[in-house]
Amino acid sequence: MNPRLEAESALRAAAPHALVATLRDVLTAAYGARAVRLFLTDYGGTVLRSCDAEESGVTSLPVSGSPEGRALGSQEPREQQVPRGDETDHHLPVTVRGDRIGILTVRLPGDRGAPEVLDELRYVADLLGREILVAERDTDLYQRARRASRLTLAAEMQWQLLPARAYCDERFALGAQLEPAYAVHGDNFDWTSDADQLLLTVTNGMGEGIEASLLTNLAVNALRNARRAGVDLADQAALADQAVHDHYRGASHVSTLMLRIERASGRAQVIDAGSPQLWRMRGKSIERVVLDAQLPLGMFEESHYVPQEFAVAPGDRLIFVSDGVYETLSPLGERYAERALARAIHATSLLPAAMVPRAMLRDVAEYRDAESLDDALVLCLDWFGDDR
Predict the structure, then answer these.
(1) Which segments within the chain are labelled E, that is strand?
(2) Structure pTM?
(3) Which of 84, 120, 230, 346 is found 20 to 30 A from 253 (Cα to Cα)?
(4) pLDDT 10s digit of each residue in the chain, 388 long?
(5) DSSP character for 249?
(6) What is d(CA 42, CA 69) in angstroms, rounded to the nearest whole number?
């Protein structure tokens, strides 16, 4: 049987928790693989966590400085010669539509690394990524593996809301990150794309801990419910506003920034209902997109929302940041948004969208001279349009 078809058939038939073991059997039979290991990106994006630590003896690897981390960053396979032997480790990115899930490492005898074999392994790594997304509905194995420490309950609720941490297609690329990854409570993001449009939202529920997470959960699901009903952007905001107000009666509200872009033309509508900010890099120019401030969701009953319109040009990079980013103070008391934010956008201009949020949040942490951040979110959108 063709190795691709054999791997595909075996993975689809495998129990959700047995994907790696099944793939190990297939690759051993097809290519004489000596070892097959899967490392998943942790929630903070700083380490790669082993799915089979008992098998490999390795619990985690740093993203920065390791061959596996370099393969993840470059999204290209990396080879690593095994000490004291004629074997080579092939580190292959496991990525689904731009979401960098992890690294598949396959150890092969030195004479089995022909280009056609590596092409087969890349295909298998793509298959594995898609199967992991399906398997996560029925097993916690992969969710547990990517945790470097325990999530707070509030963070658990927030991460379960997310669509992914990255996405790309021929028109655009997205990347986003929440911090502190294991204790985030109020910040969140959401997106959806179809043949005609991209819709995304950045939300920040007031308060802390479980209460902030519950509030954000209500708002995000109200926005999704309205969006899936097919109503326009203004009505999505109004219906979500009503849902939050009906429950909290104005005692709590959700700051929200909503964006809709027509895929064919780049025409955009935006509603600024609270604190998230939008910045744009066009060529070498970096500026904040100043929007008409409207009421956060749930503050008053029957609020009315009016979208603003602007054009997104091919090559534009849009950066969305929560107040935990732009309000951050340096040890000398200077707000991050005054100068440092524009510098960070410029400094990350050559990175792909998926890697920008992690890099910017690291810069924010260094700016305030701290190892971790208060609730903070960065979302990066690269718009390719027709000119890619």
Answers:
(1) 35-41, 47-50, 60-62, 78-81, 87-96, 99-109, 166-168, 172-179, 187-193, 197-205, 254-262, 267-273, 277-282, 285-288, 308-311, 317-321, 376-383
(2) 0.94
(3) 230
(4) 688 899 999 999 999 999 999 999 999 999 999 999 999 999 999 999 999 866 656 789 999 999 999 999 999 999 999 988 789 999 999 999 999 999 999 999 988 878 899 999 999 999 999 999 999 999 999 999 999 999 999 999 999 999 999 999 999 999 999 999 999 989 999 999 999 999 999 999 998 899 999 999 999 999 999 999 999 999 999 999 999 999 999 999 999 999 999 999 999 999 999 989 999 999 999 999 999 999 999 999 989 999 999 999 999 999 999 999 999 999 999 999 999 999 999 999 999 999 999 999 999 999 997 776 778 999 999 999 875 4
(5) T
(6) 12
Q: Whose CA is closest to 241, among 258, 264, 228, 265?
A: 258
Alpha-carbon span 81 to 110, nearest angstrom: 9
Amino acid at 222: A
Tokens of 257: 């920034």
Q: How many residues does the chain have?
A: 388
Instruction: Identify whether the C-beta of residue 221 lies closer than 8 Å to the C-beta of residue 244.
Output: no
The CA distances from residue 9 to 2, 12, 43, 128, in Å, are: 11, 5, 30, 12
Residue 91, SS3?
strand
The dihedral of CA 288, 294, 299, 302: what is its sign?
negative
Helices 209-228 and 233-248, axial angle in degrees (round to 10): 140
Question: CA-CA distance, 236 to 217, in Å (whole number)?
Answer: 16
How many Cβ atoms from other residues are within 10 Å of residue 114's Cβ? 11
Q: Where do the domains of the chain lie, and which CATH numbers do they carry?
A: 3-146 (3.30.450.40), 153-383 (3.60.40.10)
The tokens for 87 are 């074997």
